[in-house]
Write a structure and sequence with these properties.
alpha/beta; 11-stranded mixed β-sheet; 268 residues; binds adenosine-5'-triphosphate
Length: 268
């Protein structure tokens, strides 16, 4: 499959849209580390900082973006050729989850999945965006590899939890990105510690230093360490992401700080 789009003259050209500042692919070594939670909250943080943001849920088998961001609207036809992406909390989203019931399995093989991704890029009236985020499928299998190749202009953000078993697998994604000559924007360590609501003590239940070590190995940087919080999980389950539901929370401030770093990296 030919690479579909590329950055030219500082612009990433979609068929019906432009991305001004950056494409960001959010990757992880394995499922359940919080990749989709990070994608949504980072998109909302970028939006809070005045950026126009879109999300492509490229984890087509394992879609979860609509639930986490609280999206219930469906895409609409713009004309015979173009689809208008639904928007929630100021962020445009395309996900297979908007077209299929949440409990139905998508039993398509890779060429079909890539076809859907191509449609999300080609047939959607994105308009002018500053950032387009891709929530990749977890791991280093066929699908993440194919997608990374298609969007090789995207910077890769790797989400991991701190324990050795997780960071070792996540390092393989970093290694894959390097082999594809993709730019690794940084590492986000999620569920780094649990902070007691009552006494404020931090407990490093999954160990410490994994994200930092991985960043060093990949010659990249650890962008943040996010707390493990019941409210993050509850917010994701209920379509009320922490960045919207709890503007003052430590996690929200950390997502905004990461968004600022990514904007600063692009501006350089
Ligand atoms: N920092 C956190 N604190 C508490 N719960 C979290 C945190 N981050 C993620 N979760 C929860 O962990 C679960 C997995 O998160 P998420 O779906 O974002 O992971 P994922 O890496 O995208 O998984 P997959 O690749 O399998 O889709 C969800 O229930 C989510 O609410």
């Amino acid at each position: 499959m030919e690479k579909m789009y590329s950055v030219e003259d500082g612009w990433f050209k979609l068929e019906h849209g432009l991305v001004n500042e950056g494409l960001i692919a959010i990757a992880s070594g394995k499922g359940g580390v919080g990749k989709s939670t990070v994608t949504v909250n980072l998109a909302l943080a970028l939006h809070k900082l005045g950026r126009r943001v879109g999300i492509i849920d490229a984890d087509i088998h394992g879609f979860s973006i609509p639930r986490i961001i609280g999206l219930t609207d469906k895409p609409r036809a713009f004309n015979e050729k173009e689809i208008i992406p639904p928007e929630v909390n100021g962020v445009k989203v395309m996900s297979a989850g908007s077209m299929i019931a949440e409990n139905k399995a998508i039993i398509w093989r890779a060429p079909m999945l890539l076809g859907v991704l191509e449609q999300f890029m080609k047939d959607v009236h994105w308009g002018e965006l500053d950032y387009l985020l891709f929530d990749l499928p977890p791991g280093t299998g066929d699908m993440p590899l194919n997608i990374m190749q298609q969007i090789s202009d995207a910077g890769i953000l790797i989400v991991t939890t701190p324990q050795v078993a997780a960071t070792k697998v996540a390092s393989r994604v970093g290694s894959m990105a390097k082999q594809l000559d993709s730019d690794i924007l940084g590492i986000i360590e999620n569920m780094s510690y649990y902070q007691c609501d009552k006494c404020g003590d931090k407990e490093y239940i999954f160990g410490q230093g994994g994200g930092q070590k991985m960043a060093k190995e990949l010659d990249s940087k650890l962008l943040t360490q996010l707390p493990l919080m019941a409210t993050i999980r509850q917010g994701s389950d209920q379509g009320k992401p922490v960045v919207i539901a709890e503007p003052e929370a430590e996690a929200t401030q950390k997502f905004i700080a990461v968004a600022e770093k990514l904007i600063a990296q692009r501006a350089r």
